[in-house]
Amino acid sequence: MTSVPGWTEFLDGLRDLPDRVLARLPESQQQDPQIRQEAARLALSAVVASGIDALTSDPDHPAFLPQISNYITIGQPNADTNYRTTKLTPGGTYRLRGRRGSMNQAVIAESGPRPKQVEGSVNLGAPRPVHDLNALSADADGHYDVILSPERPEGYTGDWWPLDPTSNGLLVRLVGSVWGKEVEPTLSIDRLDIAAPRPRRDAAVLEANLRAIPGFASFIAPLLVDRPQKLRTEGYINKLKAVDFSQMGGLKGQFYYEGAYDLADDEALLIETTVPERYAYRSVILTNDIYETTDWYNNHSSLNGAQAPVDADGILRIIVSARDPGVPNWLDTAGFTTGVIQGRWVDCSSEPVPTVRKLALADVRAALPAATPQVSPRERETIIRDRRAALQQRPLW
Question: Which end of the chain is less congested by CB atoms within 10 angstroms, N or C?
Fold first, then answer.
């Protein structure tokens, strides 16, 4: 028994977390040694995210910190997005400043108290205000400066964002398309309506933060793991459907589609779709069977609008397979025979849901336009290494 209040409860609250993740999966997956360890990894991701929050979050002295990524895999991160979060004290006045950068999207969404969950449902609450970093004015060096508060400060004439007085956090999404070319924004946040120094944190606050870790980890780790199986049960295997993520933290203006995939080593899926006449962003990613985004740093497993060209006939064609078909628009399943395909259009003039056709890997070339370029193994190796370098150079912290 430890003499530190909350420590034993912290350990006890996490002891069976991997089992709670596995409990949401079919029996066959629960018994799979590989999936068991992947469930443990997902649970550890949730603990790490919760631990970062417990160690660093202070709504009176906030900072934007990493949330999810290729390495903290809860919540099925988008491959093109860097995520940051910070806590707020409801009703506070905050100043944000930094360099605006040139990302495809740089948005800051407010968040509120987590709603009570009903068994079998996923609800992260009604959408809250979203603020656009790219819409702010900037000086000659690209620096922005904006106040975020429930009421505009008296006499203040600069950029101002109204803050919902019940919001207790911010989630930043920095979305890139041309990796290595776009300039990442810089972000700082400061609460203005209290004194600048931070006093020694009270023992009760530290204990409360410690005790909160199991609760948040237990909420987020199992949250989406059964989604692939639900898609299979609904009959969406190797086909796609429109999906509404508005109650799961999805941004307004984003249209999603997804479906489960099931592929042998010598098979491939051909995804085909028209492309909206107007859109701000598009992407297609893969997940594994517990809804973790497939490792996009080290595999060719995500494609966005800058990476996946549309064919001359106006059709976007993407191949999903375990083995490299030697074409530009390839999504690598990276050793997973089953998982999920998810795509999105953002701020689009239409909302097409692609069709999916299974074919033999040997027949891929014949199913594509004759003008489709050939990608050699050496070229693919260079592409993957360049992807990895560009992504590693995006700041994670």
Answer: N
